[in-house]
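seq as requested:
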Amino acid sequence: MFKQLYFGELKKMFSLKTALIFFAIFVFGFIIVGLSFRAIGNLVEIDTVGMQDLSPMQSNRINVSEEETQSRLSVLRTELDRAEAEKAEEGYSYYLSLLNSMDEIYYLKSQIEIYEYIADNELYHTDLYFYDTVLYGVSSLGEQTATPFAVTMLGVFAFLLSIYALIIGSGAYATEMRNGTLKILLLHPISRNQLTLAKLLAMLTILTGAFLVIFICTVCYSYLAYHDPGYTMLFVFNAQSVFQAGYAFPLLLSVMSLLVNTLAYGIMAFFFGTLTRKRVLGFVLPYALDFAAPLVGMAGLSRFWITNVIAFESFFGVGMGLNTGSNFFLSLPLAIVYFGAMIALSFVVFHQRDVA
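C-alpha cells:
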C-alpha cells in the first residue's frame, strides 16, 4: 500500500508542464552563461605572476622558497595572535556584522595550514594552487577550463532549483487542504504518518531528479566544450588540515553543497506549507529566513542561522564567504537539528491537525 501511495504522490507533485518551463529557462540561461563565459575569457587575461601572498583579491596560485615560507609563517602567526587578542578584547561584539563578512581568524589559520603543509612536504619552488569558493571561478576565466564553468553554471541555477523546491514543497499538503481532496485520501486504509512520509519522499525524489538532470547536462557540455589542466589543488578542511585533490574536485563539492541547499529549501517549504496550510507562506517564509540573515548578523548569530549553516562547500577552502565564528563541526550538527526538527514537526503537526 505504501508503494502505491508513494507513486501516487510522485504523480501528483510532478507537473510535466512546470518541469518543461523550468527546463526551457535552464537551456536559455545555459546559452547566455556559456556565451558570457567565452566572451569574458577572451577579454580578461588574469596575470598571476608574482601574486604569491594568498591575498583574496589576487591569485590562488602560490610559488615560494623555503625562506619565504618560514617568513610568511612568522608573519601569519603574529597576525593570528593579534586577531585572537582583538577577539578576546572585543568579546561578543566580534561576531556582530550587518552583512556576512570573512572570519579573519579562520582565514589566517587556513593560510598557516597551507604554508605548514608546504614546509612539511618541502614543496618549494613549485606552482601550487589552493582552493577557495570565491577565487576558483574568477581565477580560471582566462584559462577557459571545464570544471569552473560547470561550477559556475550550477551556482547560477541554484536559485532556479530553490524556486522549484519551494513550488513543490509548499503545495505538498497546502494544496490538498485547500481543495478538500485530503479528506477523501484519508478515507483509505493509510495512516497520517504514512502519508506524510510518502509526500516527503516523493518531494525529495523529484528535487534530486531535477538536480541530476541539470548536473548531467552541465557536466556533459562543460567537458565537451572545455578541458581541465592536469594539476592538483590544495584544500584546507575546516582550517585544520590540508590535502591535495584534482582540479575537478570542486565540482564534487559544488554538487554536494547545491544538492543539500535544494533539498533544504524543499524541506522548509514543506514544513511551512504544512504548518500554515498556506502555499504562499510555504513559498515565501524560506526566502524570508534567507533575507533575515543580515539582521541576524547584527545580533552576532550568523554562524547559527539556518540558511547559513548549509554552506559546507566553503569549509574546504581558505575561508572566504564564511560567517564569523563558523565551523564545520558546528554547522553540520545545527543543519541536522534544524531540518530534522522541521521534518519531525511536519509529522506531528499533520498527525494532530483537523483536516475538515
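The beta strands are 61-62, 128-129, 232-237, 241-246.
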